[in-house]
What does this fold into?
Amino acid sequence: GNIIGTITDDWRIPQWGLFGMPVFIGFLSYLIVKYRAFDIKLIATQALVVTLSILIGSQFFFIKDAGNQILNGATLIIAVFAGAALVKTVKREVRQREEIEKLAKQLEHTNEKLKVLDKAKTEFVSMGSHQLRSPLTAIKGYTSMILEGSFGEISGKVREALEALFQSSQKLDRVIEDFLNVTRIELGSMKYDMGTVDLQTLLKQVVEEQKPTVLKRNLQLNLEITPGTYTVRGDAGKLSQVVTNLIDNALKYTPAGQINVSLARAGDKSRIIISDTGVGIAPDVMPKLFQKFARADDAGKVNITGTGLGLYVAKQIIEAHRGKIWAESEGKGQGSKFVVEL
It folds into this structure.
C-alpha cells in the first residue's frame, strides 16, 4: 500500500493495510500452529530469498538498456530458482531435525521402560537366589555333619560321594553369592561394614581356608608377606571375598603348577598379588576381563563351572574401597597375575 501511495501520490489505498494487518496476523498464527512455520532458520532463509528477488527485480525500474534488462531478467530467474532450492533444503533439514527430536523422545521413553524391566529382572534374580540359598544351607550342613561322623561311621565309597556332594554345594553357594552381590551392586544396596583391617591376618586366614581345595587339585598354594605394616580401612568380609574369588579364579585356570599370594608395600599403598602358572590371558580378552559374564573364548576347555561374575564383583568391591585392581599376563600359556592395591 505504501509503495502504491508513493507512486500514485494517492494515500487512501495504504489505509487498507490497516485492515489487512489483522488478516495477515491471523494467517501467520494459523501457519505457526498448524504447520509449525515459525522456524527462525526457515523464515530467515525465505526472507533472504524474497528480499534478494525484490532487489534484483527492482532494477527493472532503473535499467533502460535492453541487453542489461535481459541480463537482469536471467539473474532474477536464477535467483528465484536457486532460492527455492535453498528453501526446500532448509525445510528438509528442519523436518529431519523434528524427526530426530521425535525419535529421541521415543528412545528416552524406551530407555525408561528398559530400566524398569532391568530392575525387575535384577529383583527376580535376587529373590530366586535367596530362595536357593535356604535349601542349599541345609544340604551343606547335613553333608558336613555326616562327614564328621555325627550320624555314625560311613564307608569309603559313601564318603567319597558325600565329599563330592559337599564340594559341589560349596561351588553352588559361591555362584549364588556372586549373583546376590551383582544384584546388590546393580540395585545400589551393597552395604560395607568399614573398619580397620589387617591384611596380613586376612590373607593368612583366606590362604589357610583355600589350601585343602588347592591341594586336592595337586597344586601348591604359597603365601609370601614382606615385613611391614598393612593396615587399611575396609570391610574385612568383602575383602576376604575378593581374595577368595581371585584364588578360586586362579585355581580354575591352572591345570598344573602353583598359585602364589604375596603382600608388599607400593609407596603409600598395600599391594596384594595373586599369580599362577595357568593358561594365561590373551591380549584381546584383557580389556573385557572385569565385565559381567566375561570369559575367554576357550575358557570352557579348562573350566566349565565359571560364571564370569567373580572378577566383576571383585572390581566393584575394590573400587568401593577406593582401590585399584587389574590383571597382567604375557599371553596364553604364560600364567596370569592379578594385582590389588589398597
Q: What stands out?
A: Residues 17 and 45 are 25 Å apart (CA to CA).
